[in-house]
Structures are given as C-alpha cells and as structure tokens.
Amino acid sequence: MYLYSVDRTLTFTSEDMVLFKESPFASWMERLTIENPAHGVAPDSGSAVPGDSASRQDAVAAVLARNGRQVTLVDWDAPEALRRSDTLAAMRSGAEFIVNGQLAVGPLAASSQLLMRTRGYSELGNHLYIPCDTQGKTNQHDAFRLCFIADLLHSLQGVLPPKMVIFRAGGQALHLNTEDHIYHYRAVKQHFMAAQREFRKHRMPDPALSVHFGRWRDCANAVLRQRALQGDTHWQVQERQGEVAPLPESAPAAPRALLAEGSDAALQGLEFIGSGGVSVKRPQGRAARAGDRRRRPVPPAVLGGAAVPPQPEKTEPLAHPLDTPGFSVARRDEPLPRRAYAVSSAGRRCEPLEDRPGEQDTPRRFTPVPFSASLNTSESFDG
After folding, report:
1. What residues have CB less than 8 Å from 368, skipping those under 6 apart?
2. Which of 126, 198, 124 shows the shortest CA–CA distance to 155?
3. Residue 225: beta bridge partners?
4. Is this structure's pTM higher than 0.70?
5. Do residues 29 and 219 make contact, with C-beta atoms less than 8 angstroms apart?
6. In degrees, to the nearest 5, what angle opens at C-alpha 43 toward C-alphas 203 and 220?
7. What pairing do the DSSP bridges indicate for beta strands 71-73 and 97-105?
8. How far is it, in rounded angstroms, from Cα 201 to Cα 197?
9. Nearest in space to 4 (alpha carbons), one of 79, 87, 55, 78
10. Are 306 and 299 in contact (CB under 8 A)?
11. 192 touches 16 (CB < 8 A)
12. How far is CA 130 from CA 119, 120, 167, 203, 379, in A?
C-alpha cells in the first residue's frame, strides 16, 4: 500500500490483500498511517513497514540469455511509471520472457518477477503471458500472489492466463491451474475492495477478529484491554452503532485521536433471544428442584406487543346434524326421541315427520331408493 508517485493515488499490492485476509485490523492501521501519519499511534518497536515480497531477478534474466532465450529486462531501479510502460511495450512486442516487469490496472499494481509467453489468442495478438514465481522460496501465499498478477494480466491482455508456474530451488517447476486458485482470490479481492471503499478513520475493525496484528500489536492490546475494562455489553452497543470508544488517557500508546466517542448506553439483559424485552422468570425453590415443567402463559409483548383477544370456549357439538329450533339435545344416558324424516320434493333437505312417542330408540333401516339422475324422489325413511 503506497501513494503512486505520479498522481499520489492510493495503490494496493498483493501484500495488502494477504495482510487484509489475515488481519483486517492491521490493514486498516496501515491505510490510516498513510492517509494520516500524525494520528499519534506508534508502531511496535523494532517493526518494519510492510513491503513488496518480490525482489529483482537479474540473475534469472542472465541465465535465460545464456540459453539463447529472448529476454526483456526491465530496469528495477527506474521510476514506476517508466517500468509500467516498458513492461506493457514488451508484452505488445511479443517478448519471450519479461523479467522485473511492473503491471498496474486502476488502484492495483504488482511487480512481476517473470512473465512467460505462450501460444494463444488475446488482445496482444497470437500470444499471451502467464505469471511465474522465480524466487525459489516456498510460501503459503505464493499461489495467491500469482493470482493477483494473473488478474492484472486478464485486464491487460483480455484473457485469463490458463497456467501459473512456480520455480522452486533446483530448477523444479510447479505448474498450477489458474482455475483452481482464482476464485478464492476473487472472493478476497471483493471483500478487500469493499473495505477500502467503506474505509473511515473513526471506524476501527475489531482486533479480536484478526489472526495477528502486524506491526500494531501494542495498539491492539490496548484496545482489547479497554474493552475488558468497560465490559462486553458496552462494546456491543458501540459496534452496532459503527463506533469504537476512545481509550483512557492513562493507556499507553492509546489511539485516542483516531477513535470516536461511543455511546454510554448498555444492552438490557435478556433471558432469551427474541423475547421482545420480556424477562421470563425461572422457577425457584422447590419448583426448581422438582423440575416444574408446567406451561406458563405467554405475555402479550412476546407475541408482537398487542394483547391477544380471548378465545371463545369450545362447546360440545350438537348430537343431531339437522337440529331445528324446537329440537333439544337429550342427555346421553337417556334414549333419544324417535323421529322420522322424509326427503322433500326438491331433494335438498330432510323434513321431520310426526314424533312417535313411546317407542324405544332402535336403529333405523333405510328403504333402498332407485337411482335417479335428477335425485328428485319422495321416498321416506322407513322406521
């Protein structure tokens, strides 16, 4: 991360993305230091400013030249603007190998140790370039850094390099399929660029969410110490408001100038998440020891804050489906009155016939009625 010498724009390298995916806190501190060097927070004693892991590869260019290869060596000590233009010119001319190149697209830039030409169609012509790592050191971020360069090449030549090569010590070459690594890089890039767009000087990322603190370990420990003194609930309110509280005046190397003042409000203690602020008391004493599991009435506030209307009591269903106003349901232990019914001429309802008192309630039998398409019959139920 640095300011480009031509227009003083903030420029990001692969090292910045590597630092971001491991420590958003350290990445935020590095940008704050570039934009506001007088923020008053000193880095750890003996620490160095993060730099580019790439180094000049003049020896690689010499070896390739001795083997009769066509090599374009970009001057490592030249100004960055000149290195960018020389690298792009060598790519357009179709150089077989380009050593110590410099690629840049927008706010992203990287030093390319070795670009190797291969066959294929691109905006450069009948060729394209793939990135190579020639430092001979094995690092867990080697593939990620090569993906950064492959992404820049994709923008410059219009085609994503299909391969990436890592030359290990002893001349062993490790070929990587770009498709196997590029999607992880793109996901990290998306989060990284979003964090840079949303960067605010008063909104420090939570140090506890970083794997390490870079060269800002003392600052991170001071912030975490202050959180422990104020309590987690105080910090949870400030995180929800997008703010971080300032450290006390007595804190060593406290970043007071860069932290905004937070709210003094505290979260209310809730028994359950989503209870709407209603505290449900737990059974005490003998009920608690006995494991009282009786259901408690649900407070109206839990159901959205409005009182629930009383539900009508359930009544016993009528014993007769064709009940009339003059008909009453008898007790279950008494025989039901005897009634006969006849189907009306319309065929839509059953009309009661005269009661037959004195007869016991016996099962009724139905006289078979021939099927009629109109269902208009005048047959009656036979008792």
Report:
1. none
2. 124
3. none
4. no
5. yes
6. 45
7. parallel
8. 12
9. 79
10. no
11. yes
12. 10, 11, 13, 39, 96
CA 115 vs CA 112, 204, 315: distances in Å: 7, 38, 86
Residues listed for the chain = 383
Per-residue pLDDT of the chain (383 residues; tens, 9 = 90+): 899 888 889 999 999 999 999 999 999 999 999 999 888 899 999 888 887 777 888 999 999 999 999 999 999 999 999 999 999 999 999 999 999 999 999 999 999 999 999 999 999 999 999 999 987 677 788 999 999 999 999 999 999 999 999 988 777 888 999 999 999 999 999 999 999 999 998 899 999 999 999 999 999 999 999 888 887 666 566 666 555 544 444 444 444 444 443 333 332 332 323 333 333 444 455 554 555 455 555 454 444 444 555 555 555 554 444 445 554 444 444 555 555 555 555 555 555 555 445 545 555 554 554 544 444 444 444 44
Q: Which long-range contacts (CB under 8 A, 24 or more apart) does 163-166 make?
A: 163/118, 163/130, 164/130, 164/131, 164/132, 164/133, 165/116, 165/130, 165/131, 165/132, 165/133, 166/132, 166/133, 166/142
Note whether 35 and 8 are within 8 A (CB). Answer: no
Structure tokens at 123: 């905006």
Rounded CA-CA distance 188/186 in Å is: 5
How far is residue 347 from each of residues 343, 351, 373, measured CA to CA in Å?
A: 6, 10, 12
**Cβ pair 379, 366 in contact under 8 A:** no
Domain extents in the chain = 2-197
Strand ranges in the chain using DSSP code E only, listed in sequence order: 2-3, 10-11, 71-73, 97-105, 108-122, 125-136, 163-168, 173-177, 341-343, 350-352
If DSSP codes are grouped into helix, strand and coil, which group holds residue 181?
Answer: coil
Cα–Cα distance, 271 to 277 (Å, whole number): 9
Number of C-beta neighbours around residue 123 at 10 A: 12
